[in-house]
Amino acid sequence: MSTDVNVKLDALPGLDPKALPLQVKNLQVEFRTRNGIAHAVNGVSFDVRAGETRAILGESGCGKSVTAQAIMGILDSPPGFVTGGEILYRGVDLLKLPESERRKVRANRIAMIFQDALSALNPVFTVGFQLGELFRKHRGMSRQDAKARSVELLDLVKIPAAKQRVNDYPHQFSGGMRQRVMIAMALALDPEVLIADEPTTALDVTVQAQIMALLAELQRERNMALVLITHDMGVVADVADRISVMYAGRVIEEAGVHEIYASPAHPYTKGLLESIPRLDLKGQELSAIKGLPPALTNIPPGCAFNPRCRYAQDVCKQDPAPALFQVSPSRTAACHFWKEVKGDE
Amino acid sequence: MSDVVLETRDLVKHFPLTQGIVFKKQIGAVRAVDGVNLELRRGETLGIVGESGCGKSTLARMLVGLETPTSGDLFVQGKNMSKVGAEERRRGRRNIQLVMQDPYTSLNPRMTVGDIIGEPFEVHPDVVPKGSRRRKVQELLELVGLNPDHINRYPHQFSGGQRQRIGIARALALNPEIILCDEPVSALDVSIQAQVINLLEKLQNELGLSYVFIAHDLSVVRHIADRVAVMYLGKIVEIGTEDEIYESPTHPYTQALLSAVPVPDPKLRGQRDQIVLVGDVPSPANPPSGCRFRTRCWKAQDICAEQEPLLQIRDKSGHPSACHFAEVRDVVHATE
Hints:
heterodimer, A: 345 residues, Rossmann fold, eight-stranded mixed β-sheet, four-stranded antiparallel β-sheet, 12 strands, globular, B: 336 residues, alpha/beta
């Protein structure tokens, strides 16, 4: 890869090559809407190491995609504002960088795959043009060189007949192939961190298996840090190393994948796992979590999950919300009663 | 058999592809559903699984009469719906109702919930006398777990799960015997999904309903279905009881589909016998000759291109499978 841009990036003040590729500390994001302020992200912290897969698990509206957008710096603003916290790339706080510097980090160091490839790609340009744009803008390559690199990239993500397909428009690709183009685009500049926001939600299971296998392979080859945002607990169990479970804009549990599936320490995580249809429960009622997630403009005081929680006591209904308790050296849970939740299996 | 409430024989739906504006001519057809034979018995749940584009939604639309079959017969309670008169067809349709996929677009935003659920009574006025319709609608709301006082609210005032409940109440309005659920929970979050599935099972027990349950989520289908049919490119490739399909699938497509489903248990990571299929589903406008799955199948031989495998019982497994080389393969390992 060309090194000129990397040299410029190394000049980022405070860059520490030994620091973690991505570390989010106490991130706060709010949306100022006509109906009041929606607190989409209320103090989210997580980190990811090179080669590691960090899953961010949560249902719609829990703030997982907003977190990703804030990291990438593509939050719609207004109405969205980052009101606090730090996003550290190798020790450099991205939130303090001027936009011109941030642009260099984006795609170069931290790249993102979006959920719906059809709407994320521009319908009026060929796939080759859109891929090549990255090389032209970020690497200053000529059109011809950029196109040659685009073909290589399509080959990398195993699109058959890449040489011809580079001139096709997004609508000429199937859903799975379009997602491959998205992956190619994200990997174009060899990023260290890849954020995948529901990369397979719109795909069929057989295609999902193909895409996840491809992602895993590319991650292994490049020792990339992967942040996988999803609501699919099957996918998480398959690929994640560590999991952050989000609810109403907060991380409510953080643990290694084996620990969380074996003994969840937060009632919400436990409820989620129990609501998956399982073989041994055939013919029985599924244990559903009662009620609905709260509106982000009106998060209940105390623990946001308390109205739906079967463990809730008076202490849960009072501010402040439970902090993250240290369940074991490597895991935390934001529940006053984590011992009971974890113990009663 | 008298307890077969719904039956299809060689049901076919082709959508014509035309060329030209003034002199239109047909240049082909999208063979969305291509000869489907199904039976639904009283009180049972028949699951239909398959990937997008396999024709499961077109099949559902034909079953409820939203789409006219190109050929083939549909029997609702023993009556051939393509042979009876318009009036009888209309009455027959009352017995089979649809719950749609997307609770955000299948409810008219400008109608109140009461009007939405009560609208079937406009079409079939003899079900409930005019004076007691409002009460009936409130009963229905209560039945699906909504507050009967919310009868005058609009769909946007409800959450996704609640809207799906409204869709279910509407489907129940005419006291049908058969409910067709076309991806009823795929638009919902996991925690809400379980609530709706529980509701559907409760209603089935209370009202003795028969369900056709169409979904792409195989674990949900496994939970709710008694029998399962697997569709690929407009045809059923394998059909059997839930146990037969999940425990001893014989068609390669079923095996690939089942093995592709991620299991929510990290302990099984890397231990599953995962079959990653190559390529995409071919276009239904131009399906492969012979077996339609042969282009993606690892077992394909010459015979697969020449001769179309029939859906029939092939080996000891005892359930029909449309593959020349059907054999049992254990793909889903039960958690210990």
